Automatic annotation (TrEMBL):
GO molecular function, one term: calcium ion binding
Gene name, Swiss-Prot/TrEMBL: Mlrb
Protein name as catalogued: MLRB protein
Keyword Manganese found: no
Pfam families: EF-hand_6
InterPro entries per the UniProt record, alphabetical: EF-hand-dom_pair, EF_Hand_1_Ca_BS, EF_hand_dom, Myosin_RLC
Domain EF-hand positions: 23-58, 93-128
Keywords from the UniProt entry: Calcium, Metal-binding, Repeat
Assembly behavior: Myosin is a hexamer of 2 heavy chains and 4 light chains.
Amino acid sequence: QAPKKAKKKIDGGSNVFSMFEQTQIQEFKEAFTIMDQNRDGFIDKADLRDTFAALGRLNVKNEELEDMVKEAPGPINFTVFLTMFGEKLKGTDPEETILNAFKIFDPEGKGRIKADYIKEMLMTQADRFTQEEINQMFAAFPPDVSGNLDYKNLCYVITHGEEKD
């Protein structure tokens, strides 16, 4: 009788790639590639500093970058990156996840982002938005009189379906 081939047991938590759909993994890969500024396959402090600079945040403290890198169990390759997101996203609701994504563009935590700034980011980074997509977004969520986008309200509508009063 031929020996049985050992089957690798995959439980829900061991294989990080099973936690996400293929499209999500592709989006994380794009984000990882954008952040891996020197293209060495790892995200380190220098990559984080360059990523923040590309987003317009220039004077990031060294300690802040070190704390981010220390969150990882070791060098941050794509699998570690995905695992870290998996752990962060486990148990979070979609609204919180989307809010956290917007907070990257709002370091002061005001709850608003300049509409021109978010438009530029959406049209120049990763899966670039077209002018038509930007127009649709601003038609549904017009910026206020100061030209700011209330992203907290936007996140609520995205996840709950109607505006809060």
